[in-house]
TrEMBL record:
Gene3D superfamilies: Metalloenzyme, LuxS/M16 peptidase-like. This is Insulinase family protein. The lineage of its organism: Bacteria, Pseudomonadati, Pseudomonadota, Alphaproteobacteria, Sphingomonadales. GO terms for molecular function: metal ion binding; metallopeptidase activity. One of its GO terms (biological process) is proteolysis.
Amino acid sequence: MIRFSRAMRSSALVLPFLLLTPQAVAQQTVSVPAIETALPAPQDLQTGNKTPWIYEGSDVPRDEEWLFGAMDNGLRYATRENGVPPGQVSIRIRIDAGSIHEEDNERGFAHLLEHLSFRESKYLAQGEAIPTWQRLGASFGSDTNAETSPTHTVYKLDLPDASPAALEESFKLLAGMMREPVLSTENLAAEVPIVLAEKRERGGPGMRVAEQSRANLFAGQRLAERLPIGTEATLKGATAEAMQAFHDRWYRPENTVISVAGDFDPIIFASLVEKYFSDWEGKGPLTPAPDFGDPVAPAGADPANPVGETLVMVEPDLPRSFTYAYLRPWRLVDDTIVYNQGRLADQLALAIIQRRLESRARAGGSFLYASVEQDKVSRSADLTLISFAPITDNWQAALVDVRAIIADALATAPSQDEIDREAEQYETIFASLVEQRAVMPGSGLADELIGAVDIREAVAAPETFVDVFKGVKDNVTPQEILERTRRLFAGDVIRSTYVTPVAGEASEAAIQLALKTSVEPNTGARLASKPISFEELAPVGRPGELVSLGSLGLQGVTRVEFANGTTAILSPTQAEPGRVSVRLNFGAGYRAFGEEDGAYIALGEAALISSGQGTLGQEELDRISNGRVMGFDFGIDSSQFTFSAQTREADLEDQLYLFANKLAEPRWDPNPVIRSKAAQQLAYESYATSPGGVLSRDLEYLLRNKDGRFKTADAQDLAAATPEGFRKVWEPILAQGKVEVLIFGDFNETDAISMLSRTIGAIPPRTSIAAEVLARVPEFPAAGTATVVRTHRGDANQAAVVMAWPTGGGVNGLPESRQLEILTSLFTNRLIDAMRERAGASYSPQVVTNWPVDLDAGGRITAFAQLKPEDVPVFFAAADAIAKDLAVNPPSADELARTTEPLKQLVSRSMTGNLFWLYQIEGSSRDPRRLYHLQTILTDYSVTTPERMQALAQKYLNARPGWRMAIIPEGQTLATSAEDASPARIRAVPPRETGR
């Protein structure tokens, strides 16, 4: 039951704004629609004294919001009502078959079958899945998707604004996909190249390391050699008969679980599951799952120190990394309260070690980072994994350093203070889940149930988490933590992998010897336990004088201004109970830097906050925020810097204090800068290992016309960077520009104004930003620039391409920027169709738009894809042809509807979250123009005309040739033409104009 998943968050779309105010959204009542066609009552619900199937063998209290059913044919389901976001229904169908279930000649079949199920099925004609879901408002790839893991295949649908007819139609279509996909030779011929393209895109040194590490870690087990993507030989050898046999063997009701959560009566969900799946019968006798195998030490291993298989991998472009694991057999357990309390105690034990390791790394240890975790992997092993990155080639010293900290935890019980510190953190997390259960999205709940089924455990309400953990917190002792630590760092076999860029640096024998050699415990790694209180800290300054208080111009949204120039926007709302979003904006962003400061920009993103403030270094910041709901994210935008956090009302003032104190009294500890510099130096060479890495490294720099501020710092740049230089660049920047604070969520407005007065309103007056700084706007490369060619050192069958066109920027152009989202969605759909047909490029082709609101220029439309090197000219020709066709021929009404409906639903759903509103209103306390276009946002994204799209294409896509970039393998030359790349032969309009 305890799975330690991330706390659920409402989605926030960073798109411009909406017609309604936050309060209006929060106060909406959404009526639950009724299914118009008569549905028989569900017959297989487990009610009354029946134990729901997921709680069999468990004493975990049942989550009463779920309804459970088990049908005679073996299919199990769970349904619940959930109105987050309003009108949406999330459906998950889990098939208990993944890559581990494949025979040697079937590797990749589970994933390939997932693709084929979407291509054609009983109620969906060939290629109609994507347009059908789009017409229902679901975006393909986000709202409609699937995943294949070693242990299962899961089909996912988030149906927005679900009408009764759309809901029933969706169940019908999904039933056809599960029960009767069309597994023909024709469909195989179309989908196998796409799956091979996915395999190609994932290749390179990183994937080699992942594959070989897995093979080593799980040596002798099925998991070692069964990646979901499969092998080229088995995929190319797949036949319609073989795929049908795989489907018949595993796609059957006994192997199926359906979870549904959404804004309908859960009885209706149950009725629909039974209507479309109750008559499903498996073909032939049920095939039992194969034996996944157990971890086994090699013959002759010392039972007291069973160091087994060791792998040394030489990858010249990857940084050093070392992992070793203690492996134990996975066994099915009864998911009881006692079991979960034991799991939680294990997590406390690991958290204590993790904090000690992090403290050692921060202080300048021989490793850049180190982590410890316990996991039950694919029902194949229960393992404890230790990972670290040596800073130098002295991996032996780093290994001793890490093992010495673990040895201390194995030798001596932790202090009660250490236990209490970690317990307080977990207690806060679980309490927050209870506070926020009303805003848990249905998609997350549906996923959680499927995750529980996968690991063969139950689900529980947030209150149960709190109660179970209280039993641990109140009773766990240092001695029990010591005993659990010893069990966690023991296993049937110990396996290890070392990745190094230098041949001969390590041998398998040397690593095995090092792991067998005992180390002296590092007793100095234990952390001081003295708590720190905000009450002990000096005030930021004298409380600020309030000079202005009034409405921002939106219902329930207040604008505040203090004498030091700080402005604030406050929006108290119950849309997300127990949650407060805070954002502080200041300064000039990228405009604040000179081109020579490029290396310090990325170092600032990584090290500025951890370099401390006032009397608080990194360790003190950790201690003072322990057991609190606080954060401190730092970002650099085109025209401002941002501090942001998710907190709660009880912690709001202290959160604001940290933000204010960072500006008023920054600290300049050198270690975070040195550590970040080392991390970037180690990572730089790895960019060259794949086309995607080269894109991450170079694209922004090139699209900004080689502006040095956007250059990824190389070895020479980083060597020249120092902690002293870091302070010289960043200290004046932190003092520049007036501050705007936004607080959105569940808080008292009057109290928040007082908090602001004592914190942000109390910082000293800020220096002005020079006019020449504000005038800096990035340039787009000049028209007529030749294709930029970069090379990578990854696999010889990988390449990437980019085309880009400049657009605009500024507040006044917001309506046009939203219409560009529709245009680029049209472009994406056509590019996917063209590239899948011509080059088997999977779903990687994408077209996006960027429109800076704070700058009057600098926007762009960017199209990109990963593909084979020989298909680079195919992409350029396809993108050119589509761009020109959009400018000449307006899209059809159906094509436009399939684009605008998903966008409309995406915006409508996103508006229920605080962050959505925060992102759209920010800046308006100083620039009211941002509010002018709020009333049209929904129509801007969802209402247009074919002529409007044509005009935008003429304005931006046809005004000048697209800028081009290609990333190809080293040693190859760029093909400038190909027979299939002729624009006349590239389909420029969608192949399907209407539904069937």
